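On to our target:
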Amino acid sequence: MSTLIESTAQASPRRTYSRWASLVVLCAGTLMTILDGNIVTVAMPAIQSDLGFSGPGLAWVVNAYLIPFGGLLLLVGRLGDLVGRRRMFAAGLAVFTAASVLCGVATSQGVLIAARAAQGVGGAMTSAVVLGMLVALFPEPREQARAIAVFSAVGAAGGALGTFLGGALTQALNWHWIFLINLPIGVVAWLAALRVLAPESGAGLGKGADYPGAALVTGALMLTVYVIVGSGDRGPTVTLLLGALALALFVAFTVRQARAARPLLRLRLFGSRMLSGANAVQVLMIATMYGFQFIGALYLQRVLGYDELTTGTAFLPAPIAIGVLMLGLSARSIGRFGAYRVLLAGLALIVAGMALLSRAPVHGSYVTDVLPPLLLLAAGFAAAMPALTGLAMSGAREEDAGLASGLFNTTQVVGGSLGLAVLSTLAASHTDGLLGRGAELVPATAEGYQLAFRVATALAAGALALAAVVLRSRTEQARN
C-alpha cells in the first residue's frame, strides 16, 4: 500500500506539469493567430505602397484572412472531435506557419492575398479546437477557471500586442517581418504540440461527417463574413441580396441537420441556454472591443497625430492590465463570486469605458482622455472574457466540446467583423456628412469617431442587459 501511495504521489506532479505544459502550447498557438489578426493593421499603408494596392483592394489583405477563418471554424471544430483535436491543432499550426512564410516573401498582390487566405485556414484549424482541449485538460471547476483566465489573458493581450509589434517591426525593419516572425514561433509550437499534448484518436470520420451540411454551413458563414467585411464597398441592394443568400444557406443547413442521420451540428446544442446566450453576448461584446481597437487607433493617428509606433505604444497599458488582472484576480473572483456576477461587473466596466471615450475631443490628451477609458476597458474585458468562456463551455457536453469551441470562436469572428464594419461605416459616413457641410477635416473626423464610440457604448449596454437576463442560473436566483 505504501508503495502505491508513493508512486501516486510521484506521478501526480508529472500529470500536473503535463497539463499546464499543454496549456502553454495551446496559448502559444493561439497567440500566434491572434497577433496576426492585429499586427497587419498598422502595416497596411506600407503594404499598399510597396505592392501597389488600391484602396478597395487593400481591404482584401484583411478580408482574405477573415473569410476562411470565420467560415471554417465550425466545420474544423467538428472535424477535430472526429479525427482528434491534437491532430487538428498540430496540422493547423503547420498550415499557418507555412502560409506566414509565403506572406513574408510575397512580392505581388495575388501571392499575398492567397497566402493570407491559407493563413485563415490554418488559423481556423488551430483556434477551433483549443477550448475543447482546455476544458478536457482541466475538468475541475477551480483549475478550469484558472486555465481559462490564462488562456484569455494571452488572447486579449495578443490583440493589443499585435498593434504594437506591427508598428515596431514595420518601422524598424519592413512589413515582411510582421509575417516572418511567425516562423520561429510556429515551429517551436508545432514541435511542442507533438511532444507535450496527449494523443487522442477521436470518434472517427464515420461518426458525424455530414459533408453536404458542412458545405452549406461553411458557405453560409463565409458569405456572412464577406457581406459584413465588404458592406462599405457595395451598394445596399447587393448587400441585402448577399445577406438573403447567406440566410437561405443557414436555413437549408438547419433543415439538413434536423433530418441527417449523422448531423455536423447537433441542434440540441442550441437548447443550452448558457451556450446560446453566451455566444449572443459575445457577439455584442467583441463588436464593441474590436471597434474600439480599430477606431481608437484611427483617433490617435488622425486626430491626435500619432505615428504608427507611438500608436502601438499607447495601447500597451491594455495588455499589461489584462494580463495582470486575468492571471491575478480573474480566477479567484470567479471562484468566489461566480462567473455570472464577474461577467456583469466586467461588462459594466466596458460600458463605462466606452461612454468616456464617446467624448474624445479634437485637442485631446492621452493621459486624461485616452488612458482612463483604456484601463476601464482592459479591466472589464479581463473580468468578462474568462467568465463568459466558462459559461459558454459549461453548456456543452464532452463529446461536443470541439464543436462548441468552434462555435464560440465563430461568434468572435462574426462579432469582430460586425463591429468593424458597422462602427467604421458610421464614423466615415458622419465625417463625410460634416465635411459636405463645410466642417474642417480633423474636427469632423473626431465627431465621426465620437458617434462610433456612442454606438459601441450602446452595444456594450445591450450585452450587459442580455447577460443579466439570459445567463442568470438557478443558483444565482437562489442567492438572491
